[in-house]
Amino acid sequence: MPATTSHDLEGQIALVTGATSGIGRAVAIQLAAQGATVLVHGRDADRGAAVIEEIELSGGRARFIAADVGSTEGVQSLVAEAGDVDILINNAGFSWFGPTPDLDAAKFDELFDANVRAPYLLTAAFAPAMAAKGAGSIVSIASMAGTIGMPGGAAYGATKLSLVALTRAWAAEYSPSGVRVNAVAPGPVYTGTTSGRTKGLGDTTLLGRAAQPEEIAEVVGFIASPRASYVTGAVIPVDGGRTAI
Ligand SMILES: NC(=O)c1ccc[n+]([C@@H]2O[C@H](COP(=O)([O-])OP(=O)(O)OC[C@H]3O[C@@H](n4cnc5c(N)ncnc54)[C@H](OP(=O)(O)O)[C@@H]3O)[C@@H](O)[C@H]2O)c1
């Protein structure tokens, strides 16, 4: 159950990419608790159905959209299925860690397709309509891996710092029209992709632990909402203080 239950997103439609698992799932549940109708996106229909059920059992509204955002066609079908959205959460993505020579060109492209190209195409599809309405909120999930150098994380970190560059440029492009564009940069979070790395990285934070997905979702819920009405172009670390040191 999310900590924040103020209904400040009533009447809003929120698309959360990669909401069948981990951080995206927690964000979908958070935004639904704030009153948004949530478009739960992912590839796994069973896990998608479970998230919808969880939201509906709590009295929220949600529907599932399946699409692989690693391809242009997948992004296009997601855009067509979604229709108008007021809030876009660019969360779908994956990490790859290992020695630089072990990441082949195809996997490198896959990383950038899911983590950078998809958010780019989705923002290009949704931001103009938000700007025309004079309101909207876009939040992209970056990572502390884009700020600190991590052995084995060169390409993944580059995808996440790319999202930061996109966020700042989009803020400059769309904020004058009333669309706030921000990024949240989590530290290590226990999710579907959790490994020993998550716990180990958590130990290096000032709080001495990794996060639960709900701790990231709480911040995203705030940034997406009118309570953050003067926040745009910001990159908010939610990393237990790891990038402060
Ligand atoms: N966990 C961390 O420590 C951490 C830290 C900082 C940032 N992040 C970022 O947070 C985001 C979520 O990560 P997570 O740890 O919550 O991961 P996760 O539990 O593995 O969930 C990833 C989600 O993204 C979806 N997804 C991935 N590639 C996709 C594709 N090509 N097309 C459609 N959906 C796709 C998955 O959908 P299906 O499973 O349905 O296919 C799933 O819903 C990522 O952008 C990640 O880089 C994570």
Index terms:
Rossmann fold, 43% helix, 245 residues
Give the structure's gist in a few sentences:
By secondary structure, the protein is an alpha/beta fold. The protein has helices at residues 22-33, 45-57, 72-82, 105-133, 154-174, 196-203, 213-224; strands at residues 13-16, 37-42, 61-66, 87-90, 136-141, 179-186, 235-238. The chain is built from 7 helices and 7 strands; from the N terminus they run βαβαβαβαβαβααβ.
Q: Might you state the CATH topology name?
A: Rossmann fold
Number of DSSP strands? 7
User: What is the CATH first-level class name?
Assistant: Alpha Beta
Q: Low-confidence parts lasting 5 or more residues at pLDDT below 50?
A: none
Structural class, from helix and strand content? alpha/beta
Average pLDDT works out at 96
Do you know the CATH architecture?
3-Layer(aba) Sandwich
Q: Write down the domain tally.
A: 1
Q: Could you state the CATH homologous superfamily?
A: NAD(P)-binding Rossmann-like Domain
* Ligands bound, unique: NADP nicotinamide-adenine-dinucleotide phosphate
Helix coverage percent: 40-55%
